[in-house]
Amino acid sequence: MKITRRTMLDAATAAAFVPILPGRRARAQTRPIVRIGVINDQSGVYRDVNGPTSIACTRQAIQEFAAGGFDVDVLTADHQNKPDVGAAIVKQWIDQDGVDFIQDGASSAVALAITAICKDRNKVFVPTSTATSDLTGKACTPNTIHWVYDTYMEARSTGGAMVKAGGDTWFFITPNYAAGLAFQRDTTRFVESAGGKIMGARLYPFPDTSDFSAPLVEAKASGAKILGIAGAGTDLVNIVKQAHEFGVQTTMNLAALIAYSTDVHAMGLDMAQGLRLSETYYWDLNDRTRSFQDRIKDKVKLWPNMSQAGNYSCTLHYLKAVTSMGAAAAKADGAATVARMKAIPTDDDCFGPGRIREDGRKIHPVYLFEVKKPSESRHEWDLYKLVATTPAEEAWRPLSEGACPLVKA
What are the residues facing 355 on neighbouring strands? Predict the structure, then answer.
């Protein structure tokens, strides 16, 4: 069935063009238009993780970018965490609507499907809220750059730190999808290599689970010191809240293998205090992050987390590459655009200086945080205290271990 914009609106899976600069039609004859598609979860369990705030951050980057010689349009869509829905939207965007650059992604299964489509059609894809490290491993392509975080980084930063602190026995509660399984796999590697032991794990169906009582009872009975939570978004919030209901936190420390400031805000500090997690951006890290937050805060209901800040960051970098190449050349060849993005050092107020490796991995520091006690917080978004920083060149999976075909031996 041909998918029209009207159909997608009715299905709540996509929205129509959103012109960023006024007078686009009047200038269309003389100025090329670069089209950006933001596809994510706008109605499900990851809505707060990406959703409207991701779109606002994308628009903020376009507003701040001093573009020359081209205009920018933004299209947005809700893929409902369904690979077939996401794939259909992206194909229409590219084949009918002339989209050049697609970002966000969320669900790993959806992002992997988009990766294949963008390689086939030679467009640019930058997942900012997708976890699986396969995007820079066996599934890497010349058309994809993986921004913000991945399962290896989270396992190394959060899992490795918990083991060093004495958390040498683990039980996992894991969603049965690609990213959840990758979080469990990568964390298991760090735990076992440090001499720790996995006491058990329970998979749950996604997105149909909201009652986690059975796996929590099993986790508590396992005798493990650490409860590794591989679910994200609403799942993470529900697991932490129900862990408190069952008294799990009295015998186990909770480790969020993927968590965001928006999740902690949803839980509240009474519930989340002491939780350890890793992010690559936090609004109160330094003067540059605070400056970005000052510029965006009046345009969002939820303050940006690392993935949402990633939309701002990657949009700026993409537009720099387009300017460097010329819009016509960038629109004609997505792989060449990605190559130019890799060649240009990254730098923005959210992530600071960085670079993009040959496997498509965006490199920047990683921060281990501990959630504050209510008594330590100044206001509702004052959530974290910094525990440790992993330098950019140490935080990510070594090139030699990723099996990306783009990396020459």
Answer: 363
pLDDT for residue 375 is more than 90: yes
Q: Contact 278/368 with Cβ under 8 angstroms?
A: yes
Q: Is the pLDDT of residue 13 over 80?
A: no
Please give, one letter per residue, the 3-state secondary structure of the chain.
CCCCHHHHHHCCCECCCEECCCCHHHHCCCCCEEEEEEEECCCCCCCCCCHHHHHHHHHHHHHHCCCCCCEEEEEEEECCCCHHHHHHHHHHHHHCCCCCEEEECCCHHHHHHHHHHHHHHCCEEEECCCCCHHHHCCCCCCCECECCCCHHHHHHHHHHHHHHCCCCEEEEEEECCHHHHHHHHHHHHHHHHCCCEEEEEEEECCCCCCCCHHHHHHHHHCCCCEEEECCCCHHHHHHHHHHHHCCHHHCCEEEECCCCHHHHHHHCHHHHCCCEEEECCCCCCCHHHHHHHHHHHHHCCCCCCHHHHHHHHHHHHHHHHHHHHCHHHHHHCHHHHHHHHHHCCECCCCCCCEEECCCCEEECCEEEEEECCHHHCCCCCCCEEEEEEECHHHHCCCHHHHCCCCCCC
Predicted confidence band of residue 178 (pLDDT cuts 50, 70, 90)? confident
Instruction: Say if CB 197 and CB 168 are below 8 A apart.
Output: yes
* Model pLDDT for residues 23-33, shown as the tens digit of each residue: 444 444 578 99
Selection from 305, 279, 287, 280 nearest residue 381 by Cα: 305
Domains along the chain with CATH numbers: 5-149+286-364 (3.40.50.2300), 152-284+365-395 (3.40.50.2300)
Dihedral angle at the C-alpha atoms of 263, 266, 270, 273, nearest 10 degrees? 10
Q: What is the mean pLDDT of the chain?
A: 90
pLDDT tens digits, 40-86: 988 887 888 889 999 999 999 999 997 668 999 999 999 988 999 99
Alpha-carbon distance 267 to 296, whole Å? Answer: 23
Range 230-253 average pLDDT? 91
Q: Find all residues with CB under 8 Å of 180, minimum gap 6, and list them.
A: 174, 203, 206, 230, 231
Q: Which pTM value belongs to this model?
A: 0.88
Q: What is the pLDDT of residue 29?
A: 57
